[in-house]
# Entry
Amino acid sequence: MTKNSHAVTYPAFLLRIFRGAFDGTWRFYVWMTVLTAIALVGANAWAQQTANGMHVTSMTDHVSWGLYIANFTFGVGLAAGAVMMVIPAYLYDDHEMHDVVLVGELLAIAAICICIGFVVVDMGRPDRLWHIMPGIGRFNWPISMLTWDVLVLNGYLLLNLHITGYLVYTKFLGKRPSKRWYLPFVFVAIGWAISIHTVTAFLYSGLGGRPFWNSALLAPRFIASAFVAGPAFVIVLLQVVRRASSFRIGDGPIRTLTSVLRVTVLLNLFMLGSEVFTAFYTGGAHATAAKYLFFGAHGRHGLVPWIWSAIALNVLSAVLLHSKATREKVAVLDLACFAAFVGVWIEKGMGLIIPGFVPSTLHEIVEYSPTLTEWKITAGIWAFGLIVLTIALKTALPVLTGEVSLERDRELDRTRGPAEPEEDVRLAS
Amino acid sequence: MSAAHDEKQPRRVHLKVLGATLGAGAFAYAMAPLRAWTKNISKEEFLQRHYKELTREELAKVIQRLEAETKRDYGRDVTIKDPKPREGVEFGYALNLSVCIGCRKCAEACHVENNHDRRTNNSYIRVLEMEQGSFDMERGNVQYDGPVPKPGKFYMPVQCHQCDNAPCTKVCPVQATWKEPDGIVVVDYNWCIGCRYCEAACPYHARRFNWQKPEIPAEQVNPDQGYLSNRIRPQGVVEKCTFCLHRTREGKLPACLEACPTGARVFGNLLDPNSEIRWVLEHKRVFILKEELGTRPRFFYYFDV
Ligand code: SF4
Ligand code: SF4
# Structure
């Protein structure tokens, strides 16, 4: 075994990554502490929910999915949308985009962790999770769309772990990545990104008894909104990365993503409009869910503030993105991204899942409004996702910039000293 | 490198160790309710396989365990049986809307027979009060009160339709719910993971989730139980009407039928040409609910005339 065999360098790599994850400036510690605290509050709420039963949520036999599945749906969109950036980078050979693709893929990994979290907390019996594992449990594949979702989401996670892991590892070794080992995977990941959100849409659109979801437009709408949420998040994330690390990101990628966003917000609004037209022009019982969502029905208005906030936010971001101010002021661009992100979060979440259940299949109207437990758990999972994202970026980026590499580590080991304070200055700054 | 680094920064290391300890402690504290909960789940329960994979002996052991647990948790001696579907029998159910008066006796009987949670007054049957002359469920009402039948109304009880093309069994990711050879759709309460996908898929609001552990006073527990039907369900799983299979597979009638004061309900073997249910299907104006969804129910409605 030579000192350059993978059996030696790979553990060294993992160790280095692990150490890098827990070393940082005071800002990093504060950020991680806050996130950990929120995640723990969520964990505690979940433990209580599992032990005492899900009656602590606002869900009922009428509205049997709520905030968790809403967030799950949105999370899948975020995961798919994050890889959106890969498309211009590879299909059009946009070199500036190449550099930031990795950021998108790391975001996809964090988003999938979020999705898995939301599915697990929605289960009445998390102790039986093994029942859904192919091979040991009884996997109702290919009939159940949920089993498809398990496969595509985990496959997507592995793909992105492989691509990012491989690129970072080779960089750590100071080698050039061999295209053979990642390019095919990148192309598969692009197709796969579409598939995860399509399959997730099929979860709902395949249910004939739920007219609100039973629409062929659902999958395209999901994709369009994913391509709003993903780039919106990444635009802001890139700016954060630019400030908090020495990873250089030009303005090019942000500009490219902004122009993508300009189109997708409109597309998303357009599809929303088509669905609204079909529901209201046709009328009848099938329009009750839409009526309840937008205007309230039979004296109940629980979702009205939600959906109009979503529409206001989406319209605001569309207007901002097409105004000159976005080009001139980053703050305006960030505001537009924030509005788009929250707008889609509501629309794909509460605005999509809940009206599927209101009215119920026997046309009863039972309302749903998340309880504190549900909010705690939801916040906890998002905090957990941000922890994953922070650690992923924190460990991967210094390798990409060359600050961390096998050679440097070995050199430091040999000289034991001189280079040391220099690094600390950087960490403490 | 880290050794050299750490020697110079002992404070930093101490802080990290402190942070990690605090974090681990807080995590253990946050998760404490879960540990208490898992104590109530025996190793046998955790490792139990799917109903269809259990041998006779294994199932007998499982049933023994369940009976003991019921005794422990509910203070009642119960017998859990596992009657099998019979050769040459496929059940069907028909309900006469012309005579149903909306008294909800069937729903109450279901509540008692099937060991439903007393707090929520759960039942597998929901009775809709409908406008005479309209089939718009939108105008129906489940929360009606006062003496029945009311003028200008008719009543439509809805329960599991035991669909032949059942959306609920299709969507279940773990095959915890399936259709038996005699047409009854059942759930293995010890295999269901509680994802509630089936509840979203059912077009007839036939499924119920155990949002908490059912509460039943010992003297009210129905001790004649079936593994796939009315045994007391665990928290966090889905349940549904099983045409009272613990009764009907032994030649008795469903509890809801026996409770009905008007004789609106007709139950029987669809394969038996001399059965009453066959006579109804052949001679009455029969229809099924939401036929357009292609669920092919085994539950029929009909009118006299
Ligand atoms: S009525 Fe609902 S629960 Fe019953 S078989 Fe049909 S889909 Fe399943
Ligand atoms: S709740 Fe249970 S029976 Fe229903 S789909 Fe999920 S695992 Fe299957």
In short: Residues 91-303 of chain B form a domain with the Alpha-Beta Plaits fold (CATH 3.30.70.20).
